[in-house]
Amino acid sequence: MKKPVASEQFELGVCYYPEHWPEKMWEDDYRRMREMGFTIVRMGEFAWSIFEPQEGCYEFGLFDRAISLAHSHGLKVVLGTPTATPPAWLTDRYPEVLNVTYEGVTLQHGMRRHYNYSSPKYRELCAAITTQLAEHYSGHPGVVGWQIDNELNCEINVFYSESDHIAFREWLKQKYVTLDQLNEAWGAVFWNQTYSDWSQVFLPRPTPVPKQPNPHQALDEKRFISDNTISFAKVQGDILRAKAPGQWVTTNGLFGHLDSHALTDGLLDFFSYDSYPQFSSISNDAAEVNPLRDRGWGLSLSVVRSISPNFCIMEQQSGPGGWVNRMDMPSPKPGQMRLWTYQSIAHGADMVLYFRWRTATMGNEIYWHGLNDYHNQPNRRLREAAGIGKELAGSGQAIIGSVTEANVAIVRDYDNEWDGEYDVWHGPFMWQSNKEWYKALQHKHIPNDVLYIREQTTLAELARYKVLIYPHPAILSDETAALLGQYVQQGGKLVFGCRTGYKDTRGQCYMRPFPGAARELCGITVEEFTMVKGTRQPTSIQWNGMPDTGADAFNDILHVEEDTVEVMGTYASDYYAGKPAVTRNTRGKGEVWYYGAVFNEEAALNLIEHLGLRSPAAEWLELPAEVELQIRSNADTSFTFLLNYEETPAVIRVAGSKTDLLSGEVITGEYTLEGYGVLILQ
Amino acid sequence: MKKPVASEQFELGVCYYPEHWPEKMWEDDYRRMREMGFTIVRMGEFAWSIFEPQEGCYEFGLFDRAISLAHSHGLKVVLGTPTATPPAWLTDRYPEVLNVTYEGVTLQHGMRRHYNYSSPKYRELCAAITTQLAEHYSGHPGVVGWQIDNELNCEINVFYSESDHIAFREWLKQKYVTLDQLNEAWGAVFWNQTYSDWSQVFLPRPTPVPKQPNPHQALDEKRFISDNTISFAKVQGDILRAKAPGQWVTTNGLFGHLDSHALTDGLLDFFSYDSYPQFSSISNDAAEVNPLRDRGWGLSLSVVRSISPNFCIMEQQSGPGGWVNRMDMPSPKPGQMRLWTYQSIAHGADMVLYFRWRTATMGNEIYWHGLNDYHNQPNRRLREAAGIGKELAGSGQAIIGSVTEANVAIVRDYDNEWDGEYDVWHGPFMWQSNKEWYKALQHKHIPNDVLYIREQTTLAELARYKVLIYPHPAILSDETAALLGQYVQQGGKLVFGCRTGYKDTRGQCYMRPFPGAARELCGITVEEFTMVKGTRQPTSIQWNGMPDTGADAFNDILHVEEDTVEVMGTYASDYYAGKPAVTRNTRGKGEVWYYGAVFNEEAALNLIEHLGLRSPAAEWLELPAEVELQIRSNADTSFTFLLNYEETPAVIRVAGSKTDLLSGEVITGEYTLEGYGVLILQ
Amino acid sequence: MKKPVASEQFELGVCYYPEHWPEKMWEDDYRRMREMGFTIVRMGEFAWSIFEPQEGCYEFGLFDRAISLAHSHGLKVVLGTPTATPPAWLTDRYPEVLNVTYEGVTLQHGMRRHYNYSSPKYRELCAAITTQLAEHYSGHPGVVGWQIDNELNCEINVFYSESDHIAFREWLKQKYVTLDQLNEAWGAVFWNQTYSDWSQVFLPRPTPVPKQPNPHQALDEKRFISDNTISFAKVQGDILRAKAPGQWVTTNGLFGHLDSHALTDGLLDFFSYDSYPQFSSISNDAAEVNPLRDRGWGLSLSVVRSISPNFCIMEQQSGPGGWVNRMDMPSPKPGQMRLWTYQSIAHGADMVLYFRWRTATMGNEIYWHGLNDYHNQPNRRLREAAGIGKELAGSGQAIIGSVTEANVAIVRDYDNEWDGEYDVWHGPFMWQSNKEWYKALQHKHIPNDVLYIREQTTLAELARYKVLIYPHPAILSDETAALLGQYVQQGGKLVFGCRTGYKDTRGQCYMRPFPGAARELCGITVEEFTMVKGTRQPTSIQWNGMPDTGADAFNDILHVEEDTVEVMGTYASDYYAGKPAVTRNTRGKGEVWYYGAVFNEEAALNLIEHLGLRSPAAEWLELPAEVELQIRSNADTSFTFLLNYEETPAVIRVAGSKTDLLSGEVITGEYTLEGYGVLILQ
User: A356 preceded by cis ω (within 30°)?
Assistant: First the structure.
């Protein structure tokens, strides 16, 4: 069922809205796209009223003409199903399809994504329009693929309509069968929340202190939303598979409360992502919030890659962004748009579409700039995109299908992400540690993957990595711990941080010493612990023969239980001065590390040293910290991507000689990589 | 229809609430008012329940006595229609008259201004009470004028009751006639918002991301609210004109979502304003928010003057203010109350009423201090007011009817104000630039007007000014651009800032190079632009022979298109270093300036120099920056107001000899103006 | 009716939830409790569904077994009535029992305390379960007392269900009898709020500016809530008195909108409090918010003591706290748990129960750590508690029933607390001044009480204190002023701050010179005043022969009216430089001070000197400022508690020789009190 992202050439393209522009402009638009080297356009994802201006009356004329004209210019077309924006007639006639806020306010027509996934009526109407579109366009030679809906769970990812409460209840019945089991799983005996009839069970509802639901219910809520989102998308996916078997199916996004891995495995040929690195420059404290700025987008791209080794960027930033009153951002500087395009490719993209061809002159996104300005005259962004088109036309074929190489993976899982949204005793730590590890690995030029542990994860998947960093898996089942144990036995190195292993998959705490399910793996217990906040003074960690580092945010005070454990760092002060803070347990051919705090870059650098991680190009390449290194390779060859995120040039040094795939230039010895410059060395 | 603000004498007075006090106090109150030189009182505007204790039962006894007694003391009376506070019986019986929040919460009896303007029932009940009042008091010799309602659109200026949705739909039908035209104007094709039936059209309603309506709908919403407010006021205005033709009609306020110019032109004899300069001292960062502090109130007074060349201050601050839990402010220092009174007069007031006679002992405004304290004993504020009464009794007649003189106007318009509430790509810039220009002009002693460009604005109105500053008119019609072109041709100098001219009156972007409708006027295009925020480092502007200035908040990178254009400043750094930032286009006898950023005081000072603006008293008067200069003049004479906003004395120097209207003192050479002191030189 | 807190021994114990744990664990739990010296457990307060799994079906089996087993281990049992958490079946069947927010959102099952006190149905169901419990357990020898509900008014203390509006209306009818009197009391003529029918009267409802009700209505709202809470508790209290006369009755809490004095006088044997001093370490600016940190908890304990001279700590912090997503706090350091236990005792506790035996593994409070960790193994907290148990077993009997000694009281009253919640012109000043006075008194080792002035307060109650500090009683009746006058006449010293005495008990302002009802007492009037905020520069006060101090937040400018008044401080600058800021009026044998600003510690220290206050142990004990001194005494002996709140040791010096009750150690001369150390000297 899976189809490749790109099979003949690297696909470069753009999002296009023929319905927004006078039809007489289309010809010129398509012509210029082709001249710039574009091969693909996306359209249709917000056009339900064009396709079905009244219920049951379908009109394909406008898009028939738009698609055929694109095709005649040699452009492939991706069609979006238009279900992200129901027509006014639909929500007016069937208000039960609307989403409702936690406080009970019904969301109305006027923006987008105001519907719920549970309404049988909405599913019926979505099935109808998808069937019509699939039947009409499945045979069109210009249409190569489909995007289901648009950015599922963007903008809002909670749902409290009556249909949602009912669907949640049904989902719970499937999961727990009996109310007793539900009460047990939700710890309902606490605060007398025990349910005596299914009709008493709802999604979280308003509480005296706002948004303080039962935490186990809150975790199940997110699991339900994810399953419900996938089930909503499946209605369309099944129709597209049945009616349009020759065209591929994807969707775009990476949003909350959605297991994108399950979505992709179950329904899609590959996953797509919308990449806007300039979000990193919006806030005044951006440097603090995201110290890697636009380079930090690579971590999200790594997640996308964990879903689809090769993927599509359905929307690649092509200018300043912003809605009318929010997300307003500076213009990318010359070179940045190109840099970000290659950032996507370096991380695994085989298809990139810019968002969008021409800036909208109306609506909420008039400042979400496309390649063309309102005036439709030549500009810097068009020139930059055309340059990329030209480069990729030359080198694009070589790259497609090649996959990234990494020795280390940052491990995540959905249970902890979802539980950690509510639980501040581990959730914020996870994001902090991911960011700090990513900084350290990037600065050391050690490419990493992200790996989501799921029920179906195999030892083989883990064993591809020498090192796994699993920062704070508060929820850890014994089954997962056993799998990780096998990984270590066969030689893997595994790193945990504080707050590991103390919860079961219901989000209840094990009645065991910390780190709970990871105790045997680590060979230690946690004697005591403390939040480090407020008036509590932080301490630091003294490492054996390495620089001291701060013991951030939370301190587990460790107690060694096994002979195989070596203490690698101790706390420097406070009443637990001298107690173990970092331990290493040798098991089988591998090692398990326990680090008792939230990670910072300095601690990660110490660990990188201890774990023996280094740049895969260390032998032939000297790079300054500000240049990113990524490697894509296939059976034949290996592509070393170098990306300079700074405005100032960076000096690199190549031992021996390499060729830049983009320019064909041969590089030997010292070389100056221009500001925002890119090399793909072979 | 228009009646003058004051015809015989400067009217000084006070707001009075006879219903709040034992009747036995009235006599003493009126006597003391007269002794202090007061000539006028306002009353009745919150007394509906007194006039109509039950529906249809009218009782005028209390106010008959209060008005007659005032009249017998020689005090004129302004009567407020009491429609700002409907009686409890009214909202209880007719809940459809209540306003509703965006989220759907109905506002209830218990504060004030909780009604909507659209309910036919409320209009009917307002018409009834107004008719009764007008019939009863039109012949009363003590009653000289009427205030319609009180502070229209204060506290809340959005309306979402069912009546409002219906009225909006009707307003749209009038404006657009067909749904197609509505869909076109609102760009409804974007995000599939197209309406197929009028019943689907509403005022903005809750959206998944809160308060993110269609921006064109949001602009029409404000226009509707303004028209609806005026139409609500017109019901009363028409009754008062018909029933009480001998009395003048005004209303007080300067609040959002209301075209006060249209309101005044259509319904009023003159406009009134409530002036509370101490609002400038409430917040700890007041110096940052409003660097001119109380002096900055002059900008609002300039707006009032643009509506009525002479006006009434219906509420002049007479002490510390504050509701029970908000707007709490320090007490004015000795002299400040007097200073602020003359600030109002210097800007055009011919009538000033203090708010209020005696501080309320009950209700939300117990800290909104009147002239009298709760204890009703002599105090500093009463002494200060009596002093003003005495001064004005001498000089008041000379001033009335004289109008302010200015060579420069800051230009505004309602479309941009209303669009800019939502659109952060120009709205905040407008307020910032207005503030910075006002600072520069004030510090240079260059009096300015504010001019609202409206459909009916004529060349003659513009041509009264040598210079027009129109900071960031994002919305600019070709008609307005043409009018401005004529202004320049005849010799005017026009200054634009960044973000000029790119939107049409629907708030949609022109498909033209920036500055859109102003392109020909300016002789330039905008090659590129960027927000300056977040991690983006700001640059500065290098001026020809003048100090560098910061290029704040937004940078337009200019491209000169015409020979008539001279580059007056260039960017100092970043990838657009050396590119034009400031240009001057010579057209006809005039000039058009384009300044590519948001204005700051330093840039305004450079431009003031270039534009040849200077103090009209420069030849005979030396003033320190902290003293304000305003000029009012009539056919015979010119009054130069000097206002010292500092607590410390200011040294001024007069060449030749002038007489202070207030003290009769002759001033020659160096003179020390006391802290908070005032002079009116002739 | 009143029973003592403890009669035979100091009761140390713990909160226990048998329903949360496998029954097989109970035996071990009880055994270990006894080994640690515990004598009492609380249980049952969240177990309604266990007792009544379906409406009208009662089951006592689980708690019968749990209580009997506890009893057989020698543990006394306190039973909570379970009405803080209604069962799911109850709120599902009778939704009228639910509380509703101000905005109209109904609070639902899923957290706790989501019910209202007004619903007749809820009162009926609470009466039924309480009757069942009382009948069942009144004869049980293991059950010694009852806790009504749990933390009344915690989490939410406002109520807007339909039942609440109705109950408020009834309460008002009782209070005012006629609508005219209501209108008068609420100053309804202001802003035309006059009511013409009782059906128009509601609790505060949504207003155009949110939460801006009529202030007199807002004050009555709090009085109503307090009365309504007590009336709700009385239903249970009456049943318990009638059915279980041999067992004591208490409840725990100290929450808003509740007159805990009236509650205790009317219904309880003694009051209980839940003490969590680590709340003081949660926020980063904790040092600013609460400069005394955990030591500041003593002020709350002083309030508890004003309700019950001896009291119970029903929940004493036993580890780090926190819900899943809020109130997360660091772990107490070794010794702090013990320190806080003795803090409670030093302030009057005769019974202390730790919260809780074992940390919950499920629900919102999984991070509200009990003595036992999830793993149920020995830990530091258990060891620390066992040590305390051992100490108190030795010394506990000596202490019980002894009461604290203080020469000075900080005076408060409910009217001002409740009015000051809304009124920022006095409410925030009260809290600030209380905090600053408490700091000064603590640092000078002068124990203080808190005294609530109520209708039934007698001269004898006041006369126990040499000095009364009544910082900012804006509301002050002439009756209270007269009582205070008697206090002064007989030799008392009374200190007022700014904003004293200007409101009557309706919250309306007297038509008298400030300080209104306190004018005669103080012998001064307030000539003028000002908020000190925003751009207003603060001034300072020059004292006669004492250091200058800041004149914070508000400045009353005083005018001396009587010969008996001496000016003790004047303002240093601004237009009121040299005017009186602090005065002392000699009346009878006493003094009345008026301090024209909000207190700070420095001013309080000057006043302490003037008032002749000093440490009661000054003659024999030298203490550093960081050590707290409290004294409890009975007919026979006096216990001097010394508590070191710092981690570092403190050096004290004893003249002569004293014995530490806890260790039996004899202390003479210099002694080093360890970090977090405690002494009870005899």
Answer: yes
ipTM of the predicted structure? Answer: 0.97
Give the 3-state secondary structure of residue A471: coil
What chain C residue is nearest to A209 in terms of C-alpha separation? Answer: C155
- Evaluate the omega torsion of the peptide bond into residue C213 and state whether it is cis, within 30 degrees of 0: no
Residue pair B239/B132 in contact by the 8 Å Cβ criterion: no
CA angle A275, A15, A7 (to 5 degrees): 80
Which of A45, A52, A315, A628 does the annotation list as catalytic? A315
Task: Please state, in angstroms and as integers, the Cα–Cα distance from residue B85 to each residue in A188, B97, B472, C348, following that order.
Answer: 50, 12, 38, 53
Judge whether C493 and C611 are in contact, CB under 8 Å: yes
Q: Which residues of B194-231 are buried (b: 16+ CB within 10 A; e: fewer)?
A: bbbeeebbbbbbbbbbeebbbbbbbbbbbbbbbbbbbe
pTM for the model stands at 0.97
Query: Is the pLDDT at C508 greater than 80, yes or no?
Result: yes
Kindly indicate the confidence band of residue A678, based on its pLDDT and cuts at 50, 70 and 90.
very high
The tens digit of pLDDT for each residue in A159-181 reads 999 999 999 999 999 999 999 99
Mean of pLDDT values over A460-469: 98
Domains of chain B: 11-157+230-394 (3.20.20.80), 408-611 (3.40.50.880), 621-681 (2.60.40.1180)
Q: Which two tokens stand for residue C290?
A: 């609460």
Instruction: Return the number of other C-beta atoms located less than 10 Å from residue A124's C-beta.
Output: 12
**Residue A581, amino acid:** A
Residue A624, classified by CB atoms within 10 Å of its CB into exposed (0-12), middle (13-18) or buried (19+), is middle
Q: What angle do CA B433, B436, B442 make, to 5 degrees?
A: 135
Q: Which residues pair with A651 in a beta bridge?
A: A672
Contact call for residues C144 and C40 (beta carbons, < 8 A): yes
Asked whether residue C287 carries a pLDDT value surpassing 90, the answer given is: no
β-bridge partners, A353: A13
Strands (E), A197-306: 248-250, 272-275
Tell me if B54 and C196 make a contact (CB, 8 A cut-off). Answer: yes
Which pLDDT score, from 0 to 100, does residue B673 have? Answer: 98
Q: Which residues of A touch C87 (CB under 8 A)?
A: 192, 194, 196
* Rounded Cα gap, residues A251 and A267, in angstroms: 9
Q: Using the beta-carbon criterion (under 8 Å), do C329 and A531 form an inter-chain contact?
A: yes
Give me the residues of chain B with pLDDT under 70, please. Answer: 1, 286-289
Query: Cα(A92)–Cα(A88) distance, rounded to whole angstroms?
Result: 6
d(CA B154, CA B46): 15
B78, B63 Cβ separation under 8 angstroms: no
SS3 content of chain C, % helix, strand, coil (to 5): 35, 25, 40
Structure tokens at B239: 């009754």
Residue among B100, B192, B423 with most chain A CBs within 10 A, to mutate: B192
Hey, which residues does A475 pair with through a beta bridge? A503
Decide if C293 contacts C279 (C-beta within 8 A): no
C151 classed as catalytic? yes
* Number of neighbours of residue A520 by Cβ within 10 angstroms: 17
Q: What is the pLDDT of residue A85?
A: 98
Tokens of residue B117, six digits: 């303007």
H helix or E strand, kind and range, residue C631: strand C627-633
The answer for residues whose C-beta is within 8 angstroms of residue A565's C-beta and 6 or more apart is: A522, A523, A524, A583, A584, A585
Beta strand pairing status for C311-317 and C349-355? parallel
The dihedral region occupied by B633, where left means phi > 0, alpha psi between -120 and 50, and beta the remainder, is beta
- Of A242, B362, B612, nearest to C186 (Cα)? B362
Q: CB–CB of C446/C628 below 8 Å?
A: no
Chain A partners of B191 at a C-beta cutoff of 8 Å? 46, 85, 111-112, 363-364
Strand partners, B409: B449, B468
| Residue among A88, A105, A113 whose CB faces B195 most closely | A88
